[in-house]
Amino acid sequence: MNRLAGTWDRIGELTAQGEVATLVMLRSFEQGPCSVSLGLVLDGEVIGFLHRAGAHVWIDEYDCSED
To answer: Phi then psi for 54, rounded to 5 degrees?
Structure first.
């Protein structure tokens, strides 16, 4: 999100003209020594940026464990 600092208003101008902005988040679950089940967190500041930009959030999750 730091890379986009200072661009949120410009992105908002583009989405107001019909363009689409989407934050895509991907999380996969795999068994292994580094496996953890942490959630995805968007704090208030990030939600505010996304709102200013008129952006959508798309979250994909994949369970790659073998049951």
So the answer is: 65, 30
